[in-house]
Structure formats: C-alpha cells, structure tokens
Amino acid sequence: RNSVAAKCVVLNSDGVLSLQNAEKSIHVALAQSVEQFWMANPAYSVSDQDLSNTLWAYGQFGLEVWFPFFQTTPVGTSTGPSTAAAPLTFLSRDRSLEFDLEVYPIGFLPDWAVIVGVSQGFSSPPASFGLGGPVFELQTKTHPFLHSILRRMIEKDLDIGGSVIAMARKYSNVPHYSHSLELLLHEVLEDEYQVVGRSLKQAKAPNGLFSPPPASADVPPLPVGAGLTLKRVVELLKLLGGPLYAPLVVACARKTDPALWSLLFHPSFGADPPQKLFDMCIQNGDIRAAASYLRVLQLHDGG
C-alpha cells in the first residue's frame, strides 16, 4: 500500500492542524491557531525537489511552511532529521515567512513559486461616473517564496552544487527569479550582520563615509561558524553564472546600509571585491550594473 496515501492532514474546529497516519493510528500536531492550509496532492508531488511537496498554513502566527512535507530520502541522510519512526518522514515547521499583513493569502502556485493573496484597495473614478468618492475593490497580489525555500535548503547543509542549484535553476524562467535571489542574499546578509557585525572592524573617513580597515589591519576573531550561510549563498550565486552574480551583489549593496558592506565583501566569506565585480560587469557589457558599482567603489574603496 502507498505509505503517502495513508497519511492525511486535518484542521479541526479549534484551529489545530495535525497529520494523521490512518494505518498506524498516529496523530501528530503540526500547528495551532490555523485558519486555513494548502497542499498539493502528495500522490503527484513526493519529490524532495518539488515545490508542490509543501504544506502551507496561515493563522495567528503568520504564514508557515513545511518543505519537503513528505520526504522520500532514506532516514538519517543530510536532507532531513534522523528518525526511527518510519522510512518516510516529514520535516518540522520552519520559521514563519515574512508576509505583508495587509494581504490575506488564499493559495500558492508551486510552478511559479509564489503565494497568492488579496488585499483591499481603492480607486478614484472620474467625476463623470457620478459616484462621489473612492471605490473600494479587492486586489490580487503575489509574494515570491523561492528565496525562503533556497535558504532553508542551504541552512540544512544540502549540497550547493547539487540539490540547491538544481532547485534554483528549475525556476530560472519565472519573472521574479533575479528578485528572489537578491532577496536571498539581502536577508542572509542582514541576519548574519546581527551576529558578526560587532566583531568586524569598521572605521569612518574624515568625510563621514564608510571605509573598511586595510587588509593588513588586525581583525578580531569572529564567532565560530560566522558567515557560513552567507558564504554558501555567495557560492550559489557564483555557480549560477557570472552575468547574474555581479549585478545581484550590487543590487543588494545599493539597498543596504554601507555598514553592512564590510560583511558583504568580507575576504573570507563575502562576495568578490567591488573592483573585480565592476570589471566583470564591463566585460559582460552590463553598463547599468557597472554604473551602480561606482557609488560602491567610492564609499568602500575610497575611489
């Protein structure tokens, strides 16, 4: 008998979302205060690399996701926690995804890696309509989640050159692909800076602009494991290709505080130096990205 088909997800009237195994009479609570949930038919989406293999829930604690929900990898491998309960396991809840509180999610599109929601908006019709005021309407909005899935895979120490890059390339044709990779780098950079930012030496030039310490300066030791996730994200961007890598880094840099650049361009786990990335943009004929690096070069390298 198909062990996937024997499982079912139940949302009771108290808002408790649970997974039940009809064969073994096992009941596992997944989340509380849930209003609604979505998932694809597991009979058609049991691959660990398929975004259809996700369970989404929305309620008091925001938007929550389990990926992969049904796991087909043998127990004890690097893709999930070891468990002796059954060869087919599911992962525990990851951290809630940030989602616009003004948007109410109504479903997800795994083929496009977006969450679909509705929000209330209004428009002002012409006076000739004779309505005498704004017209309130429902607006459909989408929210990409590819970057969140890629980050969870990276944090679980999956192979960057294998499963992670395969997942990233699988969605390279979606419209928000570059934006999702930029979000991945931006979120990891900010979170890593909260941990290691105080350990990085920073100085300010007389004109008040940020200036990193010279390469010969003594740099205080960083916490164990510092910058590891950022290093793996940068590695992923490099593997995805040079024409994509340099523009993504500068797009992230221009939208963050220059104080974070000491981490973004850190020689041990950050991106390549701005001058090298600038030269890459020139070689690739990306004049717009190269122009964006001029400000970074001025503040970071004092050029």
Protein model, in words:
This protein is an alpha+beta fold and 303 residues long. Helices cover 32% and strands 20% of the residues. It contains eight helices and eleven strands. The protein has helices spanning 146-155, 160-170, 177-196, 228-240, 242-254, 261-264, 274-283, 287-301; strands at 7-11, 17-21, 26-31, 34-39, 55-59, 62-66, 104-109, 114-123, 135-144, 203-204, 210-211. The chain has a three-stranded antiparallel sheet, with no helix packed on it. Strands 4-5-6 form a three-stranded antiparallel sheet, with no helix packed on it. The protein has a three-stranded antiparallel sheet with strand order 7-8-9, with no helix packed on it. Strand 1 (7-11) and strand 2 form a beta hairpin. The longest helix has 20 residues, at 177-196. The chain is globular and about 60 Å long. The model is unreliable at 73-94 and 201-213 (pLDDT under 50).
Short description:
Helices cover 32% and strands 20% of the residues. It is an alpha+beta fold and 303 residues long. β7 and β8 form a beta hairpin.
Question: Strands, helices and their partners?
Answer:
Blueprint: E1 7-11, E2 17-21, E3 26-31, E4 34-39, E5 55-59, E6 62-66, E7 104-109, E8 114-123, E9 135-144, H1 146-155, H2 160-170, H3 177-196, E10 203-204, E11 210-211, H4 228-240, H5 242-254, H6 261-264, H7 274-283, H8 287-301
Antiparallel strand pairs: 1-2, 2-3, 4-5, 5-6, 7-8, 8-9, 10-11
Helix pairs in contact: 1-2, 1-3, 2-4, 3-4, 3-5, 4-5, 5-7, 5-8, 7-8
